[in-house]
Design a protein that fits this description.
WH_DNA-bd_sf; mainly alpha; Transcriptional regulator, BadM/Rrf2 family; single chain
Length: 128
Amino acid sequence: MKFSKATDYALHALVYMIHRDGDTVKIPVQDLSVALNVSTTYLSKVLTRIVKANYITSTSGAKGGYRLQQNWENVSVYDIVVAIDGVQTLFEDSFDHGSECRIQAAMMEAQENLISTLKNKKLKDLTV
């Protein structure tokens, strides 16, 4: 599982929003892009994916911006990865050996451990 630049930006933007009380205050994309030193256009596209997944809300206009949804503390890192990159597999087995393939079994175990870790790591854990 490779994490994209978009996922990296999304997680950093969310942590920034948390530190800036983004659950009560709308944070303009310009503020986020300056703080993260990334393109406003690209960051807007990334944040749109998080809005579609219902982890943040957006308001357009002069007083617009992004705000964390209620219960943002319960959102996992895995939720954000999936919202940005979709569900991915760690390993593609080129051979059709089935469940007895020890290589595939080892890789699937590693993937399950990674997913479990990311599901257990909540956004609130990234802000401590």
